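Task card 7
Instruction: Convert sequence to structure tokens.
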Amino acid sequence: MTKFLFTMLPANDLGLPTRMVPIARALADRGHQVAVFNPAPAPAKLIAEAGLLNLPMPSRSMPPISGDFARGSAAWDVEELFAGLYSDETFVSGATAVYLDLIRDYAPDVVVDSFDLIACLTTRILKVPLVTVLQGNFHPASHGFLWWETQRPHQLPGAAPFINKVAAEHSLPPVARCVDYMAGDLSLIVGTPETDPLPSTANVTHVGPIVWQRGNAALPDWLASLPKDKPLIWVYSGNPRYGSSPNPFDSIIVIRTVIAALGDAPVQVVLTTGHQELPEEFAVLPANFRHLAYLPGPAMAARADLMVHHGGHSSVMASLLAGTPAVIIPTSTERESNARRLTAVGAGEIVKPVNGDDGEKHIDVADFRAKVNRVVQEPGYRSCAQRMAASMRQYGGASEAADRIERFARSIAA
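Output:
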């Protein structure tokens, strides 16, 4: 039996836990000792639903993050995103201390991480074997979020100066790029070479899509009774608001857009927010809308005629695995990267928002409505999505990831 600790960036949305919980659950079902660490409210609900142990916050409190979220949301690549999140030495030092307590107290044989730079740094400090589970554009060998442009601009900022100061306190050598911490002793890529391409020199294994759904999960009975003569559109916004004031990563624009464009349309809309509260401005929804905090993603994606979402990687995986096309409103460059991969295979369309002077994102509602109608009515989009679904089913997903992690754990124990 191996003792595993699963970590991930503790953001209050479901993208990372959706990919990590299925692997953690698979390893726990095989008799391993498994714990997860994500104290954010929405992920904590998903972890509890899976019956997994979610470690409490150590007695040392996590310092508040005070990042440049505008830079992070518009970042060229992961390194610039880290500059937006980790350019405060006090935060980096304090967060590292929390993770040192966490990992020392739990004493795992292996840490399995998805996109938590501080967890990866701390794991290296403590010399614990590290597995990373990433989407392609998070890996050090990636061409970045804006991969369709010619090359990365020179002299973009990074967080290495701040990370290296903390690393030096623990006798780690400096790094030129913080993203290099994302390369684990074993690196697994969620997705396929078509959805998440990396250079052949990258030492990675694609394991296919991973999307969480409880074994006995079922859709509500009322969904089955909806009339078949109107398209069913599943709108997944992710977290509408990350704070009390506008944040560049907010996805409230997704909800505002679908209400403006589809409130009187001959469609049925199911809106979910990923265990998040619906903002008060949407207290009264159009008659053809229904809101639930959460629905099982794979089942709902398969039931829908179209998905509308914010471009999160897990949402892209859910729609493609179900063979359901999508219209995406990407709320950051990372999400635009994912969205462009989906449109490149012909499985959907993008409508990009623009940043307003009020700190909110705005969108061309008429353009969005036209693209929804086009994707619903033209069968080529669904055909492309179904081709991708067939291709993705050749990969093992969470089971394959668990197999490879088990083999890695046996190799280091030998």
